[in-house]
Specification:
Blueprint lengths: L5 E4 L3 H12 L4 E4 L30
Parallel strand pairs: 1-2
Length: about 60
Amino acid sequence: MKSFEDLVVSAVLCGAVFAHEARKAGKSVLVIDKRPNVAENVCTREAAGPPAISRPRSSSSV
């Protein structure tokens, strides 16, 4: 049976970040989640073109 130094149950964003940082520190980590994706609704993908820039709304558009 394999053993782990850390166990993360439910890999929402905080759990995923903890697991990542623990692995960078050299620890063995087991992540358990019922969903196939980790970090809940956070995902990344490459897109064509420059990155989008969020601009503050002007007071006239309120």
